[in-house]
Design brief:
By secondary structure, the protein is an alpha+beta fold. The chain folds into two domains: 4-91 and 193-241, Periplasmic binding protein-like II (D-Maltodextrin-Binding Protein, domain 2, 3-Layer(aba) Sandwich), CATH 3.40.190.10; 95-191, D-Maltodextrin-Binding Protein, domain 2, CATH 3.40.190.10. The protein is built from seven helices and 15 strands. It has helices at 25-37, 48-56, 127-135, 147-155, 166-173, 200-205, 207-225; strands at residues 4-10, 40-46, 62-67, 76-77, 80-81, 84-85, 92-101, 107-108, 113-114, 120-121, 140-141, 162-165, 182-184, 190-199, 239-241. The strands form five sheets. Strands 3, 4, 7, 12, 13 and 14 form a six-stranded antiparallel beta sheet that branches. Strands 1-2-15 form a three-stranded parallel beta sheet. A hairpin with a 4-residue loop joins strand 8 and strand 9.
Length: 245
Amino acid sequence: MAATLLLCTDEIGRMPLFGPDGNGSADLLIQRASRELGVRLAYLPAPTARCQRELRSQQVDGYPATPYTPTVTSLLVFPTRAGRPDASRAVGSARTMVYRRVGSAVGWDGRRFTGLRTAVIVPAGSVMLLDRIAAMKLPVDAGAKTLDAGFAKLLRGRADVVLGWEGVAAPLLARPPFAGELEALPQPFADEHYHLTFTHQFYRDNKQLAERLWQVIARLRREQERGARPARPIPASAIDRRTPR
């Protein structure tokens, strides 16, 4: 059984679900489950593209919060039930919303866009969103490394819409220069469960540990939903944060 679980995590984070410092709700679940099973956690904060390379080359063991898309299954293993990702063993869920300029005529009804004249801005490295936009045969702009960079393009009229995490967008829209200028459309673009995922090699070598971690995560989430007091984060000294090589 692996003594240390090394997770590559986005250096920017996707709060409130996960962050580079391991302080998101998914991070805390993984920390608690790891502590219960006697596994030491190590984090490698890096750009999403770098994490994908590290995962592909088996230099890290997994990723803390991954939405399901068929493309990713060649790289990562999800907890499954009847051949589909098991929502009961997810670390959480998050919505991706469609953002436009206030007063814009661009629409989104949950299935298709109307009035769209430009490429859709998608967060860099978001495989699930890129796959969905590709399936819709729409042009995409994945050059913005952060959501506020995408919002800046939108504000300047360089795009009609931006896709972004609701939790990340909310604080940005509450302050200048975006407050009162940008808005979210009512229908989410995606509402997905996110899972702790492992490389195929790690799962083959540590299948029992991976399954036990998913089981403990599921139990901890059930306890939270019943109103049990969440445990405090484990001490920072117990988490190894590594510098990218």
